[in-house]
Amino acid sequence: MKAIRRFTVRPVLPEPLRPLSDLARNLRWSWHAETRDLFQSVDPEQWAASGGDPVRLLGSVPPRRLAELAEDRRFLRRLQSVADDLHDYVSGERWYQSQPGELPAAVAYFSPEFGITAALPQYSGGLGILAGDHLKAASDLGVPLIGVGLLYRHGYFRQSLSRDGWQQEHYPVLDPNELPVALLREEDGAPAQVSLALPGGKQLHARIWLAQVGRVPLLMLDSDVEENDLGERGVTDRLYGGGSEHRLLQEMLLGIGGVRAVRTYCRLTGHAAPEVFHTNEGHAGFLGLERIAELCAGEGLDFDAALESVRAGTVFTTHTPVPAGIDRFDRELVAHHFGPDAELPGIDVEHVLRLGMETYPGGEPNLFNMAVMGLRLGQRANGVSLLHGQVSREMFSGLWPGFDADEVPITSVTNGVHAPTWVAPEVFRLGARQIGAQRTEDALTVGASDRWDAVGEIPDQDIWELRRNLREQLVVEVRQRLRASWRQRGAGSAELGWIDGVLDPDVLTIGFARRVPSYKRLTLMLRDRDRLMDLLLHPERPIQIVVAGKAHPADDGGKRLVQELVRFADDPRVRHRIVFLPDYGMAMAQKLYPGCDIWLNNPLRPLEACGTSGMKAALNGCLNLSVLDGWWDEWFQPDFGWAIPTADGTGTDPDHRDDIEAAALYDLLEQRVTPRFYERGQGGLPDRWIEMVRQTLTLLGPKVLAGRMVREYVERLYTPAAHAHRAMDPDAARELAGWKARVRSAWQSVTVDHVETSVTTATAELGTTLGLRVRVGLGDLSPEDVDVQALSGRVDEEDRITDALTVPLKPVGGPDTEGRWVYEGPLSLDRTGPFGYTVRILPSHRLLASGAELGLVAVPSEEAVEAAGVLMR
Description:
It is built from 29 helices and 26 strands. By secondary structure, the protein is of the alpha/beta class. Residues 13-120 form the DUF3417 domain.
């Protein structure tokens, strides 16, 4: 019979064991080996049955066992040691506290998903895992971050396969009382809540659940509360589920409700108020509107001044390299949810709409674009690899008309991964044996060095034994998961004897695991099945492949790719050499990355913004075999991996491109990769392979750390944003907003009227300095409002300047009788070959983060160009 109501009955821990509760509720256990070892020793069988979840473990341990442990002095000493270590970790000084300068008092980090641990399934893929790693690294470094997200009652879907290999989705209900979270409560004990106004006088209420991620609090909003109607209760039902209005309400709750949750948390706990708000992708962009509303109500600012104040302290990170990956809503749907009868009634709906409308060439004028709003609300923005920064500047260049893409104010901070989460314990122990546990931990968390030279002293035999041990563990894991998968598909035990021979711990093992959108090309390896079979079944140099990945529930194309791969892997001829494991998630990943020898990645370049799975593999000594996209484009060296050549010319037919790149992949495996793995040196070891593993750890290891990434955010984005926030007091905000309005209205009168140089010949000698004289019209503006610049450098065949050098020009005297100003400056001919220059005028103000911020630029007219002399060639 089905229960009519469900309760979570928690154990009463004996007094000596009370610290276990604190340890279970702080998610540091998910990356701290000593804490996990302690919980495992409580009850090894129940620990395995709980999936390594301390909260579930403590709910299932028999009282008799707890009583035994309460009398076990050895266990109590271990418990006290681990509890003291956690106390020191959360209260002691770390990297952030030792930095000079005025760093932000606090940073609020908003993301639609967070992958902290499999025990808190609130993630779908790379964006969430990255956000979780960001929080963990911030905790290790002592960065005063507050994470903000949603608590989804179904999380992301669980994946299984039908008998014919079709993906099936399941949505188990998550009970927050069984998760490592706690309700944030008011001083009287009542659950803290935030509310949003909905059209028609309705309200959307949400409670705030708190997950403690080391030192970092993660606030998660949950709309499944009794005060809501059935429709509103379902707002936080599923991650990336539902239609447009459902998604819009999720994103309003995340952004607007999230700011209110942060204010509530700071009020109740005394945590410093954030000076910087970091928007991780566009989903949380509405947070800027709530902060504008706060300033309008609290400081008496008008919308434009409040906007300047909010922009100063906002960082926006974009993760998508294609417009289709961005959430966009119908203009009327957004208008319906804001204004007098809905949320933020004090803000004119037109102001809201203007922030997200695609008012640029090629944009859709009736669509509200969340990334566009994020860029307009953030004074600082970044992509997540060098290549992705470049792609983002080109993709969003319409917001900064008149500027070359490389001047669009979007920088890049390349993603990193949280080493203590993703490095296998065996790899950590090998490092600790070499340099000590504390130095190894510091190297993996702070990541302040460029090289890990100590890896060079580890004997070849130790590296090779480590790699085989990890491969053997993966084989065991794969067989267990494969057997469970086939049982779910309806197979009986008598059919599954072959699984005992699946994979071989001495065969070159390739991993491929990720989401399954079409651009990641899950089935590229199947392009020539005969060649793949030859590779899998080679008599001397075989390979074996472990594949995992989820297609979005609404993506039938992605599901067909999964089915195609599964059907190939079901073939009795090769099923011992290639497997598909359903339900890819963090628990599987933590076994998969260390156990593979090669991590394969073959997206369509440049559609991989960063891609971090190969980083996690690299930290375990796995070599990358990848298209030069995302982070691999930036850091690839032949010393530690292989680059799959791409055929990404614009005229290449997609099918032909896949054929070319698949053939290149097979060639690499046949001619370069497998020979190196199987060839043995004089000592019977694959010396050249081991050297590549060593180089991967030595040179790539320090680069791919989330500690390095978070330090870059602090130094390059958070700290400048905090300084800009402090400078933008109400008076400064009003001044800047008024100045921008004046400049915009006057800009049409700003002109470059005449340009001349002291040399008019078509050739000149290297090292020559020319005198440049420019006559400009500033209309109602003054020289204090603008920068007049000369840009010079080598030119291409279309006379476009590359690698431009910018030199400021200075006004000479006052305006002439026509109100024109003369500017002069030097022009150095510092490069040989085709050389050119131009002149431009930009708005200039002390509170601007970039000269391109307003998207305004004046350049010479054709008449002025004719007088400027010719290009130097």
